[in-house]
Write a structure and sequence with these properties.
Length: 182
């Protein structure tokens, strides 16, 4: 399957596939809404990639991002799940913030996530040379994602205690990770 995977920019009509991945990747209470994903596509489609099987047409992964102004604080308020990309995204922003990332469970462990992640980094480096820093947050519990980010050169810069609040489960700390963009 991996030979037939292509990485391409998102299209608005991919939204239902993206929501399926979102649903299968995150616990209730942590899932973000379709409206928010549509706003992400509108705000910065160039920083939103999907992985598609060119044999079957199935979309099995996505990664979305925003560009933030340098004076944008990196704090719990602006990092909050569901924040409005249309008000935060700035096309000339110097910080890349990776808003979400997921692959379908039966696509995992095949380096498709890694391929998506690297494709986004390469694209931003090429098309947005002003970007000086890449930022993301990850739950302390999402080991696969944390390993991938660490391997890609991201380092923990802080934590937000009890940031992720899945329904009927204990809250999880968010790990803030950053990487210089050059
Ligand atoms: C994080 C995620 C996108 C990685 O996607 P992926 O397609 O599995 O990526 P890769 O194949 O490159 O694997 C990344 C790591 O996850 C491990 N992994 C994750 N799920 C796995 C599975 N079901 N089977 C085997 N390995 C798995 C891989 O072994 C790999 O670690 P390694 O390089 O140390 O071996 C995917 O695990 C996912 O959607 N997780 C749930 C949502 C999530 O945590 N998103 C990140 C939000 S910050």
């Amino acid at each position: 399957m991996t030979d037939s995977i292509i990485i391409r920019n998102v299209r608005r009509r991919d939204i239902d596939s993206i929501m399926k991945i979102e649903y299968e990747s995150f616990l209730p209470g942590l899932r973000e809404e379709k409206d928010l994903y549509l706003k992400r596509i509108k705000a910065f489609a160039d920083g939103f990639l999907v992985a598609q099987d060119s044999d079957t047409g199935q979309i099995g992964g996505y990664i979305s991002s925003e560009l933030w102004r340098e004076d944008q604080g990196v704090n719990a308020d602006v990092l909050a799940l569901g924040h409005d990309p249309l008000s935060v995204h700035d096309q000339n922003g110097k910080y890349l913030y990776i808003t979400s990332f997921g692959t379908l469970p039966d696509w995992r462990g095949k380096k498709i996530g890694l391929k998506l992640f690297m494709a986004l980094e390469e694209k931003i480096e090429k098309n947005y040379p002003n970007v000086i820093k890449k930022i993301l947050i990850v739950s302390e519990k999402w080991t696969a994602a944390r390993n991938l980010y660490t391997r890609q050169g991201f380092k923990e810069t802080g934590r937000i205690i009890n940031f992720f609040t899945p329904d009927n489960l204990p809250a999880e700390d968010a790990v803030i990770m950053m990487k210089p963009a050059y």
